[in-house]
Amino acid sequence: MSLLSDTLARVKPSPTIAVTTKAAELRAAGRDVIGLGAGEPDFDTPDNIKQAGIAAIEAGKTKYTAPDGIPELKAAICEKFARENGLSYTHDQVSVASGGKQILYNALMATLNPGDEVVIPAPYWVSYPDMVLLAGGTPVIAETALENGFKLTADQLEAAITDKTKWLIFNSPSNPTGAGYDRAALKALTDVLMRHPHVHVMTDDMYEHLAYDDFEFCTPAQVEPGLYDRTLTCNGVSKAYAMTGWRIGYAAGPKPLIAAMRKIQSQSTSNPCTISQWAAVEALTGPQDFLAENVTLFSGRRDLVVRMLNAAEGVTCPNPEGAFYVYPSIAGLIGKTSAGGTVIADDEAFATALLEETGVAVVFGAAFGLSPNFRVSYATSEAQLEEACRRIQSFCAGMT
């Protein structure tokens, strides 16, 4: 009898974490490595949020709380949804967990039975399919295209839905592409969903506040109120508030689903870190002016990276609407040989050779379900980004 569960064989470790770990190992060994794999802001948590955490410690707010969040944080989340998204929720429609990943995992564990299908547009965040598999469901991958800005079309969604479909996982702005759906594009998708009342929607709005130029963020239940009772609207403080390590994610949705998620969390992790919860209250209710400043900063980095990658031989890099990623195509490099002698058979070979020969760490596209591409996180300094892009340009120019 094997010690390990058969279910474990259905999933794989996170490729993004693997790339970050490999870059750290090379850096520790003395290599000059520029890591463009990590999906987290490079600036610190704002001081008012840190002080709220410190104040919680000093006030002795370090005991167990309700399994899925303190009332004060649930109130702040309800206010946020009303203020920013025009969505009205009560406390018993809100769940708080140790990061956005746990929110999604709890929801899938609470709802999926063997044979249930979950539609996932590709490219996708690496964890979506594996969480579906862990929960016993079947991922149904709907591939998007660079030519359409990596956005799922209404026809593609319609074709992916069957009588076994339980969820659509929807992420905008997207990790890994930065693609954002405007109201018209999202309305086309919600019109499809309204024709299929057995399909529920799990939104991942983690990059809501990282939207550029004239792109205006919107979320499915906001665009189509008829989906309100079928939507779990998920978000968190990790990206916008530079609180990745604080581990606070949240969601709002139908009461029965939230109650089921609460049950799972009560028998797994129990409450999220109390100190982090109080810091998240301050994040959501305190000053928000720095968000616009960060958008300006990230927008400039995006423009630099898109311009320099499009100048690289064999690379095509679309201009994303949000998040802090680009997802360039290397279709023009497949079959070529790097200066170091590596045949670029696919995007994994490209990323491996790029790291070994230039010290630039990126994540290969197959990890996100769509090739031949690679993901760059531009959540680092312009100086680092400029140097990394110069190395990528040189690497591509040296191929034969």
From TrEMBL:
<comment type="similarity">
    <text>Belongs to the class-I pyridoxal-phosphate-dependent aminotransferase family.</text>
</comment>
<dbReference type="InterPro" id="IPR004838">
    <property type="entry name" value="NHTrfase_class1_PyrdxlP-BS"/>
</dbReference>
<dbReference type="InterPro" id="IPR004839">
    <property type="entry name" value="Aminotransferase_I/II_large"/>
</dbReference>
<feature type="domain" description="Aminotransferase class I/classII large">
    <location>
        <begin position="32"/>
        <end position="392"/>
    </location>
</feature>
<dbReference type="GO" id="GO:0004069">
    <property type="term" value="F:L-aspartate:2-oxoglutarate aminotransferase activity"/>
</dbReference>
<dbReference type="InterPro" id="IPR050596">
    <property type="entry name" value="AspAT/PAT-like"/>
</dbReference>
<dbReference type="GO" id="GO:0006520">
    <property type="term" value="P:amino acid metabolic process"/>
</dbReference>
<dbReference type="InterPro" id="IPR015421">
    <property type="entry name" value="PyrdxlP-dep_Trfase_major"/>
</dbReference>
<keyword id="KW-0808">Transferase</keyword>
<dbReference type="InterPro" id="IPR015424">
    <property type="entry name" value="PyrdxlP-dep_Trfase"/>
</dbReference>
<comment type="subunit">
    <text>Homodimer.</text>
</comment>
<keyword id="KW-0663">Pyridoxal phosphate</keyword>
<protein>
    <recommendedName>
        <fullName>Aminotransferase</fullName>
        <ecNumber>2.6.1.-</ecNumber>
    </recommendedName>
</protein>
<dbReference type="Pfam" id="PF00155">
    <property type="entry name" value="Aminotran_1_2"/>
</dbReference>
<keyword id="KW-0032">Aminotransferase</keyword>
<dbReference type="GO" id="GO:0030170">
    <property type="term" value="F:pyridoxal phosphate binding"/>
</dbReference>
<dbReference type="InterPro" id="IPR015422">
    <property type="entry name" value="PyrdxlP-dep_Trfase_small"/>
</dbReference>
